[in-house]
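Sample intake — ARHG8 protein
Collected from: Pelecanoides urinatrix
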Amino acid sequence: SLLYLQEPSNKRVRPLARVTSLANLISPVRNGAVRRFGQTIQSFALRSDSKSPGCPQKSCSRSAAPTPPKRRNSVLWSEMLDVNMKESLSTKEIKRQEAIYEMSRGEQDLIEDLKLARKAYHDPMLKLSIMSEEELTHIFGDLDSYIPLHEDLLASLGEATKPDGTVEQIGPILVKWLPRLHAYKGYCSNQLAAKALLDQKKQDRRVQDFLQRCLESPFSRKLDLWSFLDIPRSRLVKYPLLLKEILRHTPKDHPDIQILEEAISIIQGVLSDINLKKGESECQYYIDKLEYLDEKQKDPRIEGSKALLCHGELKNKNGHKLYVFLFQDILVLTRPVTRNERQAYQVYRQPIPVQELLLEDLQDGDVKMGGSFRGAFGNSDKAKNIFRVRFQDPCPGQSHTLQANDVFHKQQWVNCIRTAIAPFQLTAATAELKELPELSEESEENNPSASNIKAQKRQSAMSGITEMELDESTSECGSILDSEEAKGLKTHRTPSGHRKTREKQLSGKQKETLV
């Protein structure tokens, strides 16, 4: 149990009345400032960047000690049985009934939370004009419509429960009910946009103050508003686990065995459909927030994307923060910007189609990071968690050395990119092209020497030259080939002297045209 500071025993304190709604408790006129903690990082778990108030509002007069948060009963099914009944059941059957009871109890808790979200948050904010009806509809969606859905399951489980508290067969009930969960497609698809709007509205001090008061009230159980709005999604992913637990404790000769296996298959299909729809919605959400500096950056593969394989913050070689999106067919690097208090993403350089993408998994210390990293790391320190992405064809003139926050996130990116490019990888002959020219990390679109590089590469490919490196540290006006690297141009051995002659000619041309 939690310990709270108590007032002196000789001081008279008026006890707090029990409330389930703040509609009549908060005055829209008196709203004090509430300090907020900064953003916190989450995990697929897909939940993390929400801002929540952290300190209680100071009152002009001293108030009573805080009321302990409301707690839910965690009674086990077996604890409600009498001794004789408990002795008549096998251990396996008791565990089976426990799992069925856990599902039933979870439905009851879900229904209570959905009703609470409407009664304690939606209705008061609408009545007090803290948010508009349109904003509340966007954030809460059609949450009310799911209450009857779960009440139906709860009623069916109640009807199947015998006087002694046991449920003989649950499979037919679930097979009939689970397909109705497809109704959550729209709600889950809207969650990303709803979360963004809620975070934006939290900048409003009236919204901030209201949500903080709710958080301090017993009915909230110390959960913020988004926790309540995310409860349906978290409940959905629990269904397969609950069903597998029931199946695990069901005897092999029980009539529920095959039906429960069918139910598990149904819920997995439902979740797959919801995830697909949610992924498409998330993909479109970010596509709509992209800003292009040049019409050449626009690619039909971006607008046509239906899946976002990976996205997140990385740093480039100069230490600048980039937000990178790996869509199903194209990699897009962006700079996060704010437009009218809304997040947007300015496309950085030319997007790289997956079929033209090359990935280099660099070892720690392979690259010296410049820019802001020089002061932080120094010459002796090694840059860690880095990898490089670039075009197969050097014509676009782009290579990006990227740094993740840690080795875990680096490996996630590397794995995602490898998975994306795997279908486009060629035969074993292309394995010789692991070290293509190391291209400038600056744009070469306006550089007249770019066409020369392309022509030289084609000549080199015909002559058997398969490895050469271009220095990545270049200026905005164009790429620069380091003279020492030009001297170190590598070739395969051949019996003919013609190839070596072509090498020398090519090397000389590169020194003349690239300064």
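Post-analysis note: The chain has a mean pLDDT of 73.
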